[in-house]
Design brief:
about 300 residues; alpha/beta; Nucleotidyltransferase, domain 5; five-stranded mixed sheet; about 20% strand
């Protein structure tokens, strides 16, 4: 038995997974706006779950950022975590070892273990939401990298920009033209607003496109092409077996299929056999991946 915790910007979710991947307990609470409060909220979730199932478990946690070699959180949009020794403090509070990893990596692990990428040798997991992130899983192991930024494709420039696109929108990271500044949910909505003069949500734009509204149809077609360009740059370097789409934008109808058909135009190969698929576990992928940070054998030794 293992516990996974997903530390999100608005909620913290914890689940207990059995060895065959079934969820046996789940707890959700609002995310507090403070570091010590977050530590205590995570610990309380773990204790609540263990009380429900009557067992002590291994604990893995997905966070909106990365952990430096010194054990400090960096690159977190929950800014109160930055520079804090979250793992060490949780280990002290819970009296056991704890594993932390970027939430996009946890998504990729979940989909590689028993999701849409199960059985594939190399899986690239993609988050298309408020931001754009990703994770790489090879032979069941997540690549983290010495800088702890493996999979952070969202802060590379959008490939093959047109004159109309260049130099691209400003990104919070300080650069211009980042993939995230084009392909995140808010970026998609801003792009539509610039053309149509009206701000709509992603779902409203999709509904307008389904009705044949010209600007919405064009916005979706551009998004499919932009995503194909961005993924082609990853495929040219990593050549994964499968790309799994996650995050709110992955709910767009036929996004995977519409993107896949455009890949041959950009991938440096005479054929493209990399599959582009939607995720299997939806919003639960991150928390499930956090639980899978411990293997069955390791989880048993941990307790």
């Amino acid at each position: 038995m293992r516990i996974g915790v997903d530390l999100g910007g608005t909620k913290i979710e914890g689940v207990a997974l059995s060895d065959d991947g079934n969820v046996v307990a789940r707890v959700r609470v609002a995310t507090p706006r403070g570091y010590l409060e977050s530590v205590e909220a995570i610990a309380a979730i773990v204790e609540d779950i263990e009380g429900k199932i009557g067992a002590r478990c291994s604990v893995g946690i997905g966070i909106p950022g990365a952990v430096t070699p010194a054990g400090l959180v960096k690159n977190a949009n929950s800014t109160w975590l930055i520079g804090k020794p979250l793992g060490a403090d949780l280990e002290t509070r819970l009296s056991r070892l704890v594993r932390l990893m970027n939430d996009a990596n946890c998504f990729a692990i979940s989909e590689a273990v028993d999701g849409a990428g199960a059985g594939a040798q190399v899986v690239f997991g993609v988050i298309l939401g408020t931001g754009v992130g990703g994770g790489v899983v090879v032979h069941g192991r997540c690549l983290d990298g010495p800088n702890r930024i493996a999979g952070e494709w969202g802060h590379n420039p959008l490939p093959w920009m047109t004159p109309e696109e260049f130099p691209g929108p400003s990104c919070y990271c300080g650069k211009q033209g980042c993939i995230e500044s084009f392909l995140s949910g808010p970026a998609f909505e801003r792009r539509y607003e610039t053309t149509a003069g009206t701000r709509l949500s992603t779902s409203e734009i999709a509904a307008a496109a389904a009705r044949g509204e010209e600007t919405a149809v064009a916005a979706l077609a551009w998004y499919h092409d932009g995503l194909a360009r961005a993924l082609a740059s990853i495929i040219n370097v990593l050549d994964p077996d499968v790309v799994v789409l996650g995050g709110g934008m992955s709910n767009l109808a036929r996004l995977a299929e519409a993107t896949a058909v455009r890949l041959p135009e950009y991938v440096f190969s005479d054929s493209v056999v990399t599959r582009v698929v939607n995720n299997m576990h939806g919003d639960s992928s991150g928390v499930r991946g956090a639980a899978w940070l411990w293997s069955v054998e390791e989880a048993a030794r941990q307790v």
